[in-house]
């Protein structure tokens, strides 16, 4: 019987071959987004959020550099106290998944073979053609970023 | 921004960033 | 006795007695005791370094982040093995041409006003 971690390992590596589940298209929420190409059951692994693993302080320096260049910093994903995954310049299309205050997915950090990896799971049944979203859970900050998710329970800001 | 960044590199796996010696330096004479 | 602190140091450094071994990006270990006035001096042996690697050494207040190099912000003053540059607030200035390397004995002196 495969231990839980092994099971995650196999499932996460299958992800590469099941790309067909989602497609990249214009989003009503913000710019571009990812959409389900088939209906997806709850708690399904949908896609891994891939990027460069960097230390927190390096992420802070990059965030300042990106802000200066007007790039925005919403492709930085914190995996634990010490490390962040930065998909701003190197990564996969999971970086296009938009935030929603009433999301149909959630992000989970798995530790597989000592490596921490971020996987986006479905929370509810996702119908074909629905936009994939998860709650970014950004830390609360002073200068706000408006949230455009349009959900009834929208909190108004991303941070 | 990242959708149209010409130099964007697709990755299949997470990539560990190797820090430079001057990673934390702002200026260096 | 002044030692390398066992807890005022970055978790990823390996401390063995009074020797510090680091790898990957810069991070910091501080001494077990600090000073707050007068003139103080310490010396260390630079034992060993892989090719194309560098260290920085100097004086740091406890506010400076352990996950960066000494001299990264206003709370510390560093001296770099590469080119012998001195750093404060992440700004490098010429200081000691040629730098230093394994086998050298490094001395750091600090002179703090006594009555302030």
Automatic annotation (TrEMBL), chain C:
Q: What are the entry keywords? A: Metal-binding, Nucleus, Zinc, Zinc-finger
- Any one cellular-component term (Gene Ontology): Set1C/COMPASS complex
Q: In the record, what terms sit under GO molecular function?
A: zinc ion binding
Q: What highest taxon heads this organism's lineage? A: Eukaryota
Subcellular location(s) of the protein: Nucleus
Specify the protein name. Answer: B30.2/SPRY domain-containing protein
- Give the residues of the full protein shown: 303 to 418 of 573
């Amino acid at each position: 019987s495969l231990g839980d971690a092994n099971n995650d390992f196999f499932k996460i590596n299958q992800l590469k071959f099941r790309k067909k589940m989602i497609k990249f298209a214009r989003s009503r929420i913000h710019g571009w987004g990812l959409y389900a190409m088939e209906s997806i059951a709850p708690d399904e692994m949908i896609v891994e959020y891939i990027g460069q693993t960097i230390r927190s302080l390096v992420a802070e320096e990059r965030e300042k550099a990106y802000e200066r260049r007007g790039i925005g910093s919403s492709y930085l994903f914190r995996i634990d106290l010490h490390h962040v995954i930065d998909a701003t310049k190197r990564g996969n299309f999971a970086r296009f998944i938009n935030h929603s205050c009433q999301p149909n997915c959630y992000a989970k950090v798995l530790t597989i073979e000592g490596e921490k990896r971020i996987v986006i799971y479905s929370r509810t049944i996702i119908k074909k053609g629905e936009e994939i979203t998860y709650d970014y859970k950004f830390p609360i900050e002073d200068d706000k970023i408006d949230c455009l998710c349009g959900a009834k329970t929208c909190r108004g800001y991303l941070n | 921004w990242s959708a149209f960044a010409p130099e964007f590199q697709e990755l299949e796996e997470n990539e560990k960033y190797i820090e430079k010696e001057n990673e934390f330096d702002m200026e260096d004479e | 006795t002044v030692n390398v602190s066992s807890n005022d140091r970055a978790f990823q450094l390996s401390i063995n007695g009074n020797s510090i071994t680091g790898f990957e990006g810069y991070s910091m270990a501080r001494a077990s005791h600090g000073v707050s006035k007068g003139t103080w001096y310490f010396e260390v042996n630079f034992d060993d370094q892989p090719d194309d690697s560098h260290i920085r050494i100097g004086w740091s207040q406890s506010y400076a982040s352990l996950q960066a190099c000494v001299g990264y912000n206003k709370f510390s003053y560093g001296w770099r093995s590469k080119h012998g540059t001195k750093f404060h607030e992440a700004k490098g200035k010429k200081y000691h041409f040629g730098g230093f390397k394994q086998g050298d004995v490094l001395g750091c002196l600090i002179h703090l006003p006594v009555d302030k």
